[in-house]
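Data card: per-record layout.
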Amino acid sequence: MADNVAYTVEYARTGRAGCKLRTKSRKCPVGKIDKGVLRIGRVKPSFMSDDDDAVFTEWFHVPCWFDVQSRMRATSRKVESTDDL
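The structure for this 85-residue chain is written out next.
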């Protein structure tokens, strides 16, 4: 995984976040992540802010995250252990 990308796992607090699984051939069948559902977040530097410490999180349903990870390039580092999360 890239040095500037971190991951987080938590239960959805509100139900407002949408799953970011969107590729040319697949889209999340559920869409919104309901309150209380386990989700995985990819925390990335924010491109919308001049602040170097600003970050944003892309949220995924757990099955959607594994779909994303299975489609990553061979050169991308993948989540390989719970320590990565």
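Known properties of this structure: The chain has one helix and three strands. The first helix runs from residue 62 to 70.

See the next section for split statistics.
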